[in-house]
Specification:
Mean pLDDT: 89
Structural class: alpha/beta
Number of strands: 8
Radius of gyration: 23 Å
Shape: globular
Largest sheet: 6 strands, mixed
Length: 335
């Protein structure tokens, strides 16, 4: 309802949403509120801070809510639109396309029963841990549910890093998939691999992730630079200028089958965005709670979204078992 303003199976989806606007504050009939943002002009971190400051102020007992709306001297004035047959036809076409778009999407949600408090006792940061949950889940999803079944080489994983320390800085891409991640996933598939070996490789993968995240935040990533170079290519520069950008490996590396990012707000429950490629997933998560991790998974309806969220849940438990005795809540090892 928040994103598209309608109910499943109903018509006129997006009829009360304004997707040409960067920010929409949504007030539902039941009193629930939300926000819809258009990402090309805004990023998650400053938007979350804005929402937190607004909501903290509104929730404060000292906040002046002003007079009741019923007593407001300002009365709403209906806007009358001049229409014709062609315009009405286009409106009906837009309604049909928007209904089809909404119907093509699906969303699932999962909370683990442990959070950053336990994860830190394992000697691993919550973000790196959560990214490895996603990688393990996707690896298993490809093997068990994916199309084509058993295929893992389907594309890259994007995680947003903020570059707001720089003037006009916004984001850079953290490329989560690395050789260290691949080695750990291979060990997790290997029935003969010991728990100690799997833990060692997991720690190595998360350390590489931390380094890559730090580099991206320091503007030492590659994707924004490559985008800038691509934008400099002019018509008539010839195929040589596009050789890198047309390379199959480059094309596959920037196909973000997993579009991931994390924010944290005590005010938000479900949040997220849509997938960025038709055969991918949008993965929004939160690591800021002591007692849980939060995942929102979006995709097109033909993707096995339910299978992926189930793999997320299983991966989260299997990783914890590497560090915790299944019959105890006490960590058995710390690397």
């Amino acid at each position: 309802y928040l994103w598209h303003g309608g109910l499943a199976g109903k018509t006129n989806q997006l009829g009360n949403r304004w997707m040409d606007k960067p920010v929409q504050f949504i007030l539902a009939p039941n009193g629930e509120m939300g926000i819809v943002g258009e990402h090309s002009v805004m990023d998650g971190t400053p938007t979350t801070r804005m929402c937190d400051e607004v909501l903290d102020a509104v929730y404060s007992p000292s906040f002046d809510h002003g007079p009741s709306g019923a007593n407001s001297p300002i009365k709403p004035i209906p806007l009358e639109f001049d229409t014709n047959k062609e315009l009405l036809s286009r409106i009906e076409q837009a309604k049909k396309r928007s209904d089809e778009l909404v119907a093509s999407q699906t969303l699932t949600y999962h909370l683990t029963d442990y959070g950053k408090k336990d994860i830190k006792t394992y000697g691993i940061g919550p973000d790196g841990w959560t990214q490895m949950i996603i990688q393990l889940a996707y690896d298993r999803w490809c093997l068990n549910h994916g199309k084509p079944s058993g295929s893992r080489e389907m594309g890259g994983t994007y995680e947003a890093a903020t570059t707001r320390r720089f003037q006009k800085g916004r984001t850079e891409a953290i490329r989560v998939v690395s050789n260290e991640v691949r080695e750990w996933l291979a060990a997790m598939r290997d029935r003969n691999s010991s728990a100690e070996e799997q833990k060692r490789l997991l720690v190595a993968a998360t350390k590489k992730h931390i380094k890559d995240a730090q580099d991206a935040g320091a503007a030492m990533g590659i994707d924004r630079h490559l985008l800038g170079l691509r934008m400099l290519v002019q018509d008539g520069d010839g195929d040589k200028a596009l050789e890198l950008f047309n390379d199959p490996l480059f094309q596959r590396s920037k196909k973000w089958v997993l579009s991931t990012s994390a924010i944290f707000s005590k005010h938000f429950h479900v949040y997220g965005w849509g997938e960025v490629v038709p055969d991918g997933f949008g993965v929004a998560y939160m690591t800021g709670y002591d007692d849980r991790l939060q995942f929102t998974i979006t995709s097109r309806s033909e993707m096995d979204n339910t299978g992926f969220i189930q793999e997320i849940a299983t991966a989260a438990e299997d990783m914890r078992k590497l560090f915790v005795n299944p019959t105890s809540s006490t960590p058995i090892s710390r690397l």
